[in-house]
Amino acid sequence: MRSHDIAETVKENTDYFPIFLLKIIIIITIIGIIEKCSHSVFVGGYDMNLYDVTIIGGGPAGLYSAFYSGLRSMKTKIIEVQPVLGGKVNIYPEKILWDVGGLPPTQAQQFVQNLVDQAMTFLPTVCLNTKVEEITKQGEIFVISTDSGEVHYSKTIIVAVGGGILNPIKLELAGAKKYEMANLHYTILGLQRFRGKKVLVSGGGNGAVDWAVELLSVAKEVVVVYRKEQLTAHESQVEKLKEHGVEIILQAEIQSLLSNSHKTAIEQVIISQNGEEYPIDVDDVLICHGYNREVSLSFADDIQPVRKDDYYLVSQGQCKTSIPGVFGAGDVISYDDKVNLLLGTFQDAALAVNNAKMYIDPKADQYAMVSSHNDKFKEKNQEFFKKTIR
């Protein structure tokens, strides 16, 4: 899964922001659970904004953790660095997911919508555009500091930040940035804008080739440019490009970009290959040169969890980290025989929440009651049946 700078997209030009992401923001706002995060106030030594669990990360692991913690009657907060919930699944809104148990083939954007709807069942507090920088501890309470200076307080923490904050490696050419809101892209948020267009894709890994294959259904022409001798993507995907007669230019790089007469968009790309340069006319340019992972979430020295490869949290069993009260879910938590699929993510979330609940209340049940027999859903079931009958 790859990521575009979604926050920048929203700030600079809402017209290009996918409708399904806007709907997510609207739904969250209407429900009234987005918190304009403010400094907590202590009254008589008691923090009025103290939460049972704070979930850092609003992707699939964080969202299911929020649902499950609500099921366990925990006061819950989600802190997400992006302006929307859903995590890396948002990067491929039109991809079809086939490997989620009990779910028929579903577009990623609908899957994200379903996850968000489910997460909001018990109305957690949600802080978007909020980057956690450091976690410390005061007595039994975790103190979460953010980039804006806002502070959050929690009895437990579930870290669900996936592989970290991913930023696309940008094209380092003079003047390239000005085309980012025109026809220079670092991901695709909707295939339809490329219908009937000639698209140049720069890159030869799985990301670049996967997108090139997706574009075949809508684009007039696709050209792939890669700096190495061979494409490094999955062989079956490379074969699809060859079968469709896609022009693949190897041992070549983008040398410069030439604008149209209005200076508003890229009209030609100058390619350098074996010491020679030549132009290619384009309608759009897609750059897939990989991602830089920003690992900014840190813990105070006295509560440093054991990590693997200087990033992943090492589970001590049942998604507990080496720090009591801190748990992990999803890609960020590491343990033997881990299943790196969405189905594994949901199990991580349930384990993390159950153990957070028992950390707060050692007498609590180890598991939540199943939803089919849970009184929490009695009224919601009635509402569901009423809608179904209609």
TrEMBL record:
The keyword NADP applies. FAD binds at residues 80, 88, 92, 132, 166, 331, 372. The chain crosses the membrane at residues 16-34. It comes from the Bacteria. Its EC number is 1.18.1.2. Keywords: FAD, Flavoprotein, Membrane, NADP, Oxidoreductase, Transmembrane, Transmembrane helix. Binds 1 FAD per subunit. It catalyses: 2 reduced [2Fe-2S]-[ferredoxin] + NADP(+) + H(+) = 2 oxidized [2Fe-2S]-[ferredoxin] + NADPH. One of its GO terms (molecular function) is ferredoxin-NADP+ reductase activity. Its cofactor is FAD. Pfam families: Pyr_redox_2. InterPro entries: FAD/NAD-bd_sf, FAD/NAD-binding_dom, Fd--NADP_Rdtase_type_2, Ferredoxin-NADP_redctase_2. It is an enzyme of class 1 (oxidoreductase). Residues 51-338 form the FAD/NAD(P)-binding domain. Belongs to the ferredoxin--NADP reductase type 2 family. Homodimer. This is Ferredoxin--NADP reductase. It comes from Sutcliffiella rhizosphaerae.
